[in-house]
Amino acid sequence: MREKKVEHKIACLLAGGFEDSEFRIPYDRLRAAGHTVDIIGKEKGETLKGYKGKETVKATRSIDDVRPDDYEGLLIPGGHSPDQLRADPRFVRFVADFNASERPLAAVCHGPQLLMAAGLVQGRTLTAWTTVQSDLRQMGAKVLDQPVVVDRNWITSRKPDDLEAFSARFIDELREWEQRGQKPATAQAIPAQPGS
Prior knowledge:
Layout: E1 9-13, H1 20-32, E2 36-41, E3 47-49, E4 56-58, E5 61-62, E6 73-76, H2 81-85, H3 89-100, E7 105-108, H4 112-117, E8 125-126, H5 130-138, E9 142-143, E10 148-151, E11 154-157, H6 163-179, E12 188-190
Parallel strand pairs: 1-2, 1-6, 2-5, 6-7, 7-11, 8-9
Antiparallel strand pairs: 3-4, 10-11, 10-12
Helix pairs in contact: 1-6
């Protein structure tokens, strides 16, 4: 008997200056897996450009028009985007409220800056870009320098080199979340692959 493929609705919080591949690779992998991804910006229709200039996207939804309960997963790409978003209390509140639901939350590179702004990292195990890792430690998080770290509902990753493993694990966690009856996973690290 074939396993039924379940489509989930994913929120992607984004501002200009995002790291191009940290948006594009997870976005494409999620859509290829059959999931819907809403790009949530400050305003619906605003044009958002990656800082490398390789990606330009439009926000499909405004932060004012969405609720965390509308989504089964949350994606926070890195680059300069999380730094901008953490200055906006609407995005910080969305992250905190989404996290309270214990649904899969995936943050890469500088993405955990939004988790810090929401006051969520103390006592959690995660990873991030090298310069963010020390900030996380100072805020009471356990930081692992691994390509992908899963702690309960969080999937975190460090950099563009980790994106394939990060994207695959996020998709796996969405499927497993559904199969577990929507219960969070326990903490674990995914070891580095040779050459990463």
